[in-house]
Amino acid sequence: MGSIGDDVFPRCAWYNIRQLGISHVTRLTSKLENVQALCRRNRIVGLTELHQSQGVCQTSFMDHISNMHPYYMDGGGMHAILVDSAFKAAHDIEHVQLVHGSSHGITWMRNNLRCVYVSFRFDPANAKERARQLRNLKAALRDLCAGTCQGARIVMGGDRNFVVSESQKDGCVAGIAARDGMRRTLP
Fold it and tell me: Which of 21, 81, 125, 172 is 20 to 30 A removed from 65 (C-alpha atoms)?
């Protein structure tokens, strides 16, 4: 159970893979082993910066990860969310494209709460575009969670290339996680 309470979220993580590197067998093997280790410890794992087509990701990488179902983000960057097959079978998981090319997530209901795991990639170079993407993400989440019985629990993480200080990169440090609303791994 994660630190957000209510027995709502399973253990989850995000991993910036920084390109699959399929032409370098040693690098690809190392990244595959890292993801497999994350998948053994977490029921949901977000992968950012795959930089390959969905087909290449599936055949060169995802097919070698057992008991996890991948959901891919539409548009640039090739991000994926891996969901444990048993967790997927026990919950009515819905994959949602929140902002095309910028964010996607999975959602399910648990204990009358809308649960949402979000993986994002905001524009690293253009502050106005990044602000627009964030506004659109907030609106999409508001729409997704509207009318939910007892409220919603949203956990967000992803590619934050645009941060300007080291403290903004540490999503799990006490205080920072609360301030920026992002977590890398729930204990």
Answer: 172
